[in-house]
Specification:
Helix content: over 70%
Radius of gyration: 17 Å
Number of domains: 1
CATH superfamily: Ferritin, core subunit, four-helix bundle
Largest sheet: none
Structural class: mainly alpha
Bound molecules: fe (ii) ion
Number of strands: 0
Length: about 210
């Protein structure tokens, strides 16, 4: 089974389920609310990058059949998310701005093992995706709880539920090809590293991460 989509809003607990070590600074939602055009633009590109990364994983690993079949519908789903955010911008007469440097993702990429074996590199790619999905899920949760606009709170609750399913999928895919103990050990290292990244990053309302 690939998905654990049954998570309810209440059950998505940042510390226990997502495993993230540092909750988002509570000030972030208030800052994001003031810069809706910026946040929607950044969100749109996050969705786009999720789709293109899945395409590239399929292109690079055609022999990993289970992964290919699992990620194919995710490409469609992420692209659907991109379209939803784009429609939201349009509805509000806001513009999709230019893509910005993704500091958070760049920091995560620095932690990927460069000279490792193909398995180690694959594992890091899966765990990077899992982390981005988990942190996005946590950020969407914050928005779904903290925004003033009721419509937007619901809008973000749906994204949160979707990304919760994705985070578990990438961990499961890692475990399909790599020994579970190795996956677990490396995931812990990633979580510790991500905590440091979030801690060191400036809290700004124009970015999802
Ligand atoms: Fe998404
Ligand atoms: Fe996702």
């Amino acid at each position: 089974m690939f998905y654990f989509c049954v998570m309810s809003t209440e059950s998505i607990d940042v510390k226990n389920i997502l495993g993230l070590k540092l909750p988002t600074d509570p000030r972030w939602v208030n800052l994001a609310e003031l810069q809706l055009e910026e946040i929607l633009t950044d969100h749109a590109y996050c969705e786009q990058k999720a789709a293109t990364t899945c395409i590239s994983l399929i292109q690079k690993n055609p022999e990993k059949e289970k992964m290919v079949f699992a990620l194919s519908p995710i490409v469609t789903e992420e692209w659907g998310h991109f379209r939803q955010v784009l429609a939201e911008l349009q509805k509000r007469k806001l513009k999709l701005g230019k893509q910005r440097k993704d500091q958070y993702v760049n920091k995560l990429l620095e932690f990927q093992k460069k000279g490792g074996s193909p398995d180690e590199r694959f594992l890091d790619q899966m765990l990077t995706m899992a982390l981005i999905e988990a942190r996005s899920c946590e950020r969407f949760k914050r928005l779904s709880e903290g925004l003033d606009d009721k419509y937007l709170r619901n809008f973000y609750r749906r994204f949160m539920e979707s990304e919760a399913g994705h985070y578990t999928l990438f961990i499961e895919l890692a475990e399909t090809y790599i020994d579970k103990e190795i996956v677990r050990k490396r995931w812990k290292e990633w979580l510790a590293y991500e905590k440091k990244v979030i801690h060191e990053m400036e809290v700004r309302g124009d970015r999802i991460h």
